[in-house]
Amino acid sequence: MRRRPSRYQIGLRLQEDMHRKLKRAADEHHISINSEILMRLNDSFEDRDAHRSLATITMHMGLVWQQIEGSIAASQHEHAVARAVQDEKDPKVIIELLKDWLWQREMARNYAEATKAAKRTGLLS
Questions:
Q1: Looking at the structure, do residues 88 and 116 belong to the same domain, yes or no?
Q2: Which of 12, 39, 58, 85 would you label with 18, given CA atoms 20 to 30 Å apart?
Q3: In the predicted model, what is the mean pLDDT of the chain?
Q4: Residue 103's domain spans which residues?
């Protein structure tokens, strides 16, 4: 019965630039080029589901920043309403400030919902 080898030898053609990059990385890690290639191959198969593209990360960060900005703006509007009430401003001014505050709160909720929807549909992890 023929034994299966525990390791296989393959021939690999590389462009000079790629070889130079691998050599540099191997030297930095104090390992052989072969070990560097094996390490990179193994890394490419591990935890593939956790890999997110730069576009996905950027989109997620944008949604989070919009939520934060909305919350900060709503908080600033809350302070403006409180000051107007405390200073006994004209009720029409207070009503306009409250409308702005409600709009800011709605925007913050919309951003939160957009983030949840993106996660549900798999756009964000």
A1: yes
A2: 58
A3: 83
A4: 52-120
